Amino acid sequence: MTVLSSASSFSSSLITFFLLFSSIITLTTSTSPTFIKFLNFSLQNLIYSSPSTPKPNFIITPTHASHIQDVVRCSKANGFQVRVRSGGHDYEGVSYVSDTPFVIVDLIHFRKVSVDVKDETSWVEAGATIGEVYYHISKHSDRHGFPAGVCPTVGVGGHISGGGMGFLMRKYGVAADNVLDAEIVDVNGKLLNRKSMGEDLFWAVRGGGGANFGVIVSWKIRLVRVLKVVTVFNVPIRLEEGATTLFFKWQNEAHRFHEDLFMRTIIQVKNPNANKTIEVLFNSIFFGTVEKLLPLMEKSFPELGLERINCMEMSWVNSTLHNAQLYGEPIEILLNRDHPKTYFKGKSDFVKKAISIADLDKIWKIMLDGDDKSPVLINDPFGGRMNEIAENEIPFPHRSDWKDGKKSPEYIDTIRRLHKYMGRHVSKSPRGAFLNYKDFDLGVNTDINGIGRYLKARNSWGAIYFKNNFERLAMVKNKVDPENFFWNQQSIPPLSSV
């Protein structure tokens, strides 16, 4: 069966194929009455929901890999760009916005998660969410997990291909470090796995942005071992309670903690309308019981004054609910793809050494001087396993640093001012950023060709995301997509030689 709203040269070529093979596909056109509703279903950043935002000509929801193959072939033959959407959390809307005629391949039906506990692996389709992965692993084993992110509605297609940081990275690395195989539809519509795509392309899609090279169909991931009981805690400290000194201490110590202890900080303005102040939330997970955690904290970070009353023991899968602020809900909520939609701007950086107390006071002032939409600073420590993995092991190069991510719900002036001020304290030559926190402020692609296009990208956003790995990514791009079909504002440019 073929469900269509109208016809064009593009849809006609699809009709021919799908009628021949009696396949099922939903193709929604811009004239369909359900078009906007379907377009906005997975859209998370409301900045890109305005009527003036460019819309796709078609939204296609394939149900089989062969559908994706033919969409790529048809799009290429008819002059359409292909944008791929799994969870819709793309910070700059790359997965659903383009200034040229384009189609969205929405992978909402590619959500199968097959778990092999004996082999300690899982095949995960690219349209599944992080929450769905966590849920299905937990249904097969309470001693296995996967090192991915916090928000359960993020799609694994983009999350893993961008690196995928999360609460388990100090013990097991980022999500992309734990990929064993992958399936991808290339620019010629061929379905490839690790063996047939070759090690160069397999290297590139694990942290280099899969949509730069094709359409990721599925990942084979390594399951990691977790304890039956983990311990979590949230301890909020405000400025008047000594938050500045405590955060300064955290900067110097968090990356040195035992790898079983992950403690991030979330900094935000409290009481925006009266008696405004800064609150630093110490948000943590420990692989073990409270009895083992308290002596470790007394040794590693006694200044926090952690007590048993601050701690909760639970299973690993319940800790994912806790970290997503869903604790107390049934684990089936991890299957929910609906997520609150907001206006936001994300920025990221990697801090090499602790910011002084004097400079922290200046940062607090910038945050407190903002409007009622002050930014949130989320700071994740590295160390542990992250220090043991080489920068060129996969394209994600950021290892012995910690991330300072910033998100603003509506107004972005304060966050840009804060990011500018942070420039003196963070990574330099080049300044670093996290691909999953995509940021067009760093620069976008232009129409320059050849070596000029490569240099323009490298000197703006390329080296910031990938450091020295950018050159190899551009060489892989030239090998698998020399005509740059899979293009977007920050896609890897093809480079034949340096």
UniProtKB/TrEMBL annotation:
A Pfam family assignment: BBE
Signal peptide as annotated in the record: none
Keyword set, alphabetical order: FAD, Flavoprotein, Glycoprotein, Signal
Highest taxon listed in the record's lineage: Eukaryota
Cofactor annotation: FAD
Residues of the FAD-binding PCMH-type domain: 52-226
GO molecular function, one term: oxidoreductase activity
InterPro entries: BBE, FAD-bd_PCMH, FAD-bd_PCMH-like_sf, FAD-bd_PCMH_sub1, FAD-bd_PCMH_sub2, Oxid_FAD_bind_N
SUPFAM superfamilies, per database record: FAD-binding/transporter-associated domain-like (SSF56176)
Sequence similarity: Belongs to the oxygen-dependent FAD-linked oxidoreductase family.
Name of the protein: FAD-binding PCMH-type domain-containing protein
Organism (species): Aquilegia coerulea
